[in-house]
Specification:
Blueprint (H helix, E strand, L loop, with lengths): L2 E2 L28 H19 L5 E4 L4 E2 L10 E2 L3 E5 L4 E2 L2 E2 L3 E2 H4 L5 E6 L13 E2 L5 E2 L3 H9 L3 E6 L4 E8 L2 E4 L8 E3 L4 E10 L2 E10 L8 H42 L4 H8 L3 H9 L2
Length: 290
Amino acid sequence: MTTSIECELPLSPFPDHTQLPDSDGTFTNNFYKHPQSLILTDSIGPVLEKIHPDGQYAIGQDCGIYWRETDPPEKGAEAPDWFYVGNVPPTLDGQIRRSYVLRREYISPLIALEFASGDGSEERDATPLSFSDEGKKIKPGKFWVYERIIHITYYGIYEIATGKLEVYNLINGSYHKMQPNAQGRYLIEQLGVELGLWHGTYQNQTQLWLRWWDTEGNLLLIGSERAEIERERAEIERERAETERERAEIAEKAQRDAIPRLLGLGLTIEQVASTLSLPVQEVRSFCDNL
């Protein structure tokens, strides 16, 4: 038998991000998580810059969200593979964030994503914080912590092996599984973007990736893709300018070639200039050089 509890009161002022561990001693368990996080962060940057022109937002990538005080401290944290929280400074007192301490900032992330290496059971674990009959605390599941304590508005679980994506929306304190649209994507309304799956190559890996789209169905591009499009546009402009230059050279040569023919027909210099829309002096100079 276990006894469920909803929250605990801190015994002392909660430590800040510089006083808490930024790692639990484990390491990333696959080669997918790092590049996947980079894609999400890179491509949504322009959107967040428009929403937060003052730059007041933070993105965490496998960083701890501390939600309760424990011993050791890291047992009171969950570390989503990727999360975004708005209206908070990206640094604290000029220092890079080591973690996100919810009980000091009080603003919950809008969205958190987990990239599940297994079948997603750990990410769907809704076990509440509770005590066993022996009085030992039972570790709560991620799903329960995100839903009941941290109150993350959107929670996405992506099973890497199967390519299955689920997104939950927090409504009246409870998670509700969202239904994808016709394109298989999920609307994150507050950001004006959709989250879905894209098959392609990134950092030498060809597979399914989580990507963002705008609400008109346009893929949000990463920096290298934006740069490639700019290169293509520049090349098209260069070719257009080259074509215009060649066309102008051809037209100029045709005008010069027409001058002696028109003069041979008996037209005066003034008549030739008028016919070819050239200055009289230019036609006269041409005649002087014949």
